[in-house]
Amino acid sequence: MNLNITNIQINNPRSFFTPSPNTQSLDISDNNTRALNLLSYSYDGSYNSSPPTINSINFTNTSTAVKVTGISIYNQLDLSINTNVSNIGTFFYKSPILQYSIAGGFTVSETDLTKLITPLISINGNNSLNSTVTFTNTTVNLANNTLSTPLFLTNPVLTVIAQNALLSVTNTTTTIPNVIIDQPSFNLAFNTLKTLISDSNIDTNLTNSRASRFTSSVYGTDLSGTSLSTMNSNLIYNNDKSILATSSDVSYRAELPIVNGLFSFPSTYNSTDFTTTTGNRRYATFIWKMSTLLFASGRNTLTFEFKGTNESFIVDTGSNNVITNTTRTIVSLDFNIVISNTNTVISDTTTTSWINGALTSTPDDLQFKTGNTNNPNAVLISPPLGLGTNPIGTIVYTLPQLFITNPGTVNGYVLLRVGLPINSGFTFSNILASLTSK
């Protein structure tokens, strides 16, 4: 159907109109139907009754990928899009002409002809759109860290909607390949987890302190008795490092990946094979730097709270394993306390052993360093308290009172190493640590 309208006086070439196919009239209203900048105020205006057609969509991903646990992800998605479309109007167009979106992300609209690269044509001396036109927008931002809900999408689908002045709409979808938008993981790795060991303080005024991630370096070693000297202790965890079994950096081959803001161990993720030769178990190690006043005050209850989980912990007394109560995941927990009076970070020369965090019978020796020597002092640590009765996700230990002769020169560190089996049902987002007086 065509509407042929004559002798309509247009006082403002950008006035808004609504075509009415039922009455063969054009009603003036504020509905974002816009007239082109006409050369004459008396013209024939025609409207094609068929909907617009999106002939082709070509796009280029202009975003910069970042790595979280060696996996390339996007915290922001920017595209350069070229859209060829037919029948969006002749003398009038409906705003927005085109809309680009992905699920959960922003919608970017072409509200005028700014991005139109097809020249206008002349009909009876008036500017008119060609029957087929092309829009090119090089700055289509569909996701960034200002979204109210962090976005997680693998191979997101781009949706493009077109409309003309008769309100007909059409949409076309196409997959954006090889893209993982993982804002929860980006936020965890670079915002939630501390990026400096010195920021991860547990002091006399703070509880629930956030950790920094530390390298685990347990590839090819037995969990029990692994010394801190095997760890790359001078570096905070480097997310650029590959964690695959074939990684050139051996110390990262058994690290636990982060997926959708959670520490987990899927066997594969986006076609990446995470299986290793370490007994199908991967690890994440967390470190907190503690103030000297904390040690001098003799606080002696240590609590680790696993965030992002709805499970409690129980203990298999026969095997000294920590098991989650719902998914029945066997979680390896090992922790240590290191005290040094000279080093600003843990020294590679520190010789000390990990404590099995699931011991339920005989207390183990917690060996820590109180001087600038490799001779550790041994103290007794009690088994974890009240497993299965503590609040969800928490595990509590009783420590001996730790008094330092010369606290002004002491640096203290708490380390916790968590191991999850392959395809574990147990996941967590972060671990908070607290030290309180008993």
Summarize the structure.
This protein is mainly beta and 438 residues long. The chain has two helices and 35 strands.
List descriptors:
mainly beta, 4-stranded antiparallel sheet, 8-stranded mixed sheet, 39% strand, 438 residues
Q: How would you characterize this protein structure?
A:
The protein has 2 helices and 35 strands. It has 438 residues and is mainly beta. It has 2 domains: 53-182; 193-436, no CATH class.
- Tally of extended strands? 35
Q: Average pLDDT across residues?
A: 75
Specify Rg, calculated over alpha carbons: 31 Å
Head-to-tail CA distance between termini:
84 Å
Described by strand count, sense and barrel closure, the largest sheet is:
8 strands, mixed
Relative strand content: 35-45%
Number of domains: 2
How many helices does DSSP assign?
2
List the helices and strands and how they pair.
Elements: E1 17-20, E2 25-28, E3 33-35, E4 53-61, E5 66-68, E6 71-73, E7 77-86, E8 92-94, E9 98-101, E10 107-110, E11 121-123, E12 126-128, E13 132-143, E14 152-154, E15 157-163, E16 169-175, E17 180-182, H1 183-192, E18 201-202, E19 209-210, E20 212-214, E21 258-259, E22 262-263, E23 268-269, E24 272-273, E25 281-290, H2 292-296, E26 301-307, E27 313-316, E28 321-324, E29 330-340, E30 355-356, E31 364-368, E32 377-381, E33 394-398, E34 411-421, E35 430-436
Parallel strand pairs: 18-25
Antiparallel strand pairs: 1-2, 3-8, 4-7, 5-6, 7-13, 9-10, 9-15, 11-12, 14-17, 15-16, 19-35, 20-25, 21-22, 23-24, 25-34, 26-33, 26-35, 27-28, 28-29, 29-30, 29-34, 31-32
